[in-house]
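@channel sequence for tomorrow's demo:
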Amino acid sequence: MSNYDVVIIGGGPGGYNAAIRAGQLGLKVACVEGGVTLGGTCLNVGCMPSKALLHASEMYEAAVGSEFANLGIEVKPTLNLAQMMKQKDESVTALTKGIEFLFRKNKADWIKGWGRIAGPGKVIVTNNEGVETELQAKDIIIATGSEPMPLPGVEIDNKRILDSTGALSLPEVPKHLVVIGAGVIGLELGSVWRRLGSQVTVVEYLDRICPGADLEAGKTLQRSLAKQGITFKLGCKVVQATSSGTGVQLSVEPAAGGEAELIEADYVLVSIGRRPFTKGLGLESVGLATDNRGMLENKQHRTSAAGIWVIGDVTSGPMLAHKAEDEAIACLEQIVGKASEVNYNLIPSVIYTRPELASVGQTEEQLKSAGRAYKVGKFPFSANSRARINHETEGFAKVLADERTDEILGVHLVGPSVSEMIGEYCVAMEFSASAEDIAMTCHPHPTRSEALRQAAMNVAGMAMQA
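structure tokens (generated this afternoon):
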């Protein structure tokens, strides 16, 4: 038996950040993780490897298409998919090793194995050899994350019918890839394989892509991706998939009902969302149960069981790594008696396609539904000097501000590198800034960030460059 102040079950972005913060706060902490490496889905088979492939595929497409030639760079590239996968894996390994270093630096123990709660203050860890170890702690944090959502009638085998993990490690470029689901994962991985030469068809049950995003921003991104060659079948559902050694046959019907269509593909990616992972956690031993969505409910990260906390994908809120990190910090601060909270209204979201889509705050649809009077300021990247010089003119910056107070309520960006720019508005909105505050702030020229200022200026109709 080992005694700790805090035991964390799960070593993903929520769990490993919680362990590091616990160590910084002087707590004796253990993080239970049964994977080969720390980092969870995000670092190992999610955020990080997908970004490695997005970057590499962008470079390849620029070289093999007309982009390099237009810049006066003449090359004859060939695709080495094995090397592309190798550099992706090397980058991921370096990141996971970095987390191990941070554990050692902050005196956090990594207990290798799968944890389950066995009563108040008690966690049993079973390693890969079946050996059990008992840990005791005053506080236990559940940070077990999520897993891909299954689709009835479509059995994932990660040979021909893939989840996101399988789609990150294909040994060949698909001739035809069908993506089921037009959310973040589907659009990003669909973009990777389209750039590398695949025909890509996206099937989405709803009549739009990017559910939850600002409608205008989502439509703008869809038009751009369609121009790049991605085919969208919206308002459709896949009811059956039959795989063979060489491909998959899909039966696709209109969501509203109607005649089925057969689609042939050599690979299918199922990306209809994720669900909390709570299997085998021993929740019943402390009187906990999931809600009808499979989530563990919480109040300021506390569950209804004394000493049991919950953070990340396994509980309510957006399933995002940075949300889990914020919750990890707030949770540990509360455990040691500090005042800390997460502002769920200002958690940014990003789709790392090209162009990117980044948002924070409320959408126009949400403001209209709430009856909130608001003003809109927009500015196109086609009028931004840096974007034009770089031939990256698709998209816009949009700022939504309260009609009376001018407080910024939402920001929606579609364009080049907007994932790196949305943070400016996260900071501004955390301080309840007005659109005028941004409009009156000098931005460097020439940069893409000037579009953010011009959009804020245009809330008052004073954008000068478009």
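heads up for whoever presents: The first strand starts at residue 2 and ends at 9.
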